[in-house]
Amino acid sequence: MPDIMRILFLMEDLCYGGTQRQMLELARRLDRARFAPIMLTLTGPTDLDETAREAGIEVHHLGRDRRLAPFFFARLGSALRTLRPHVLVPCTALPNIWGRLWGRALGLPVLGTVRGGGGPKRQHERLLWRLTGHMVCNSEALCEVLQGLGVPAGHLSYIPNGVDTARFCAPTEPVSLRPPRILCVARLAGDKDHVTLFRAFARVRERHPEAVLRLVGDGPEEARLRQWAAAHAAGQGIEFVPGRPDVRDEYAQARLFALSSVREGQPNVLLEAMSCGLPLCATAVGGIPRLVTPGENGFLAGAGDDAALAAHICRLLAEPELGDRLGRAGRERVERDFAFERMVAAHEELFVRLAGEARC
């Protein structure tokens, strides 16, 4: 076993997003006396490169800009030979496909990751799980899906996402004293189903015309969502804000947090919102029901059910003190169950185990 293990996180990019931020935090918090984190992306430099380097993480790219590098799948093998990781950790779909193939070809231990609700299908897990030494899911629901595809339970670990409770903390001002701002921090992509949130917001505006929906994020659906906002009266109350590394000020100014996803793992943004003392209105998909207990720290609606989502949002706007109570309960839950220390320790144990098995 080497004195310091090189752990390579293979990413599609380091754009601002939930998986990127979660893996960056994991890499940043690894015990540097035992582990040397490396990040390799299929694209060029993007949003979080500077943050990674400031944390002392070695960063490499196969491309030059935000687009996938030409023939990245062929160039990846050469990069892995040069970087010589002791454990390869591919994150998101393309890295989990090509990283596993090259990992097997080069004899590298691979810790597969399945983080999004659409991950099992996109990553062809029915076939490719066999190319991993072990796999990590960030929700118990994903573990169950993978077992249904034939992955043995002993080949899977559930490691929930972590949140920095010191960094994401509740301001002194209670949410009940804030303007009626509904916050959604999420990539503007199909899985997030923002249109359902927009339809819910249109219903909310009928009862609370002063309400504002603030979207923080970027993504391929932005043009379509802006078109929807321009074509509907409720769009006058929708604010589009680009994603950025630090959105704590957005949490501090919101009355509640809403998420209308149709597929999810365990969303970082819900943990951050809970840590900041916000009540939640979300859809009951993926690992979200493990985070949101109806009536305790928020409310759940079915995927695509804009009427139920609107009813929950309206209740929180109409009963400000309820939002205070739910927000406090969410903060207590995060402090108890989702501290980063537990997440990091679980990953470090797997890294050591996989590297040890590779030497046998």
TrEMBL record:
Keywords, comma-separated and alphabetical: Glycosyltransferase, Transferase
Glycosyltransferase subfamily 4-like N-terminal domain mapped to chain residues: 16-167
EC number(s) reported in the record: 2.4.-.-
Domain Glycosyl transferase family: residue ranges: 178-333
Source organism superkingdom: Bacteria
One of the record's GO molecular function terms: glycosyltransferase activity
Gene3D superfamilies: Glycogen Phosphorylase B
Key word Disulfide bond present: no
Top-rank EC class of the record's enzyme: transferase
Keyword Endoplasmic reticulum: no
PANTHER family listed in its UniProt record: GLYCOSYLTRANSFERASE
Protein name (record): Glycosyltransferase
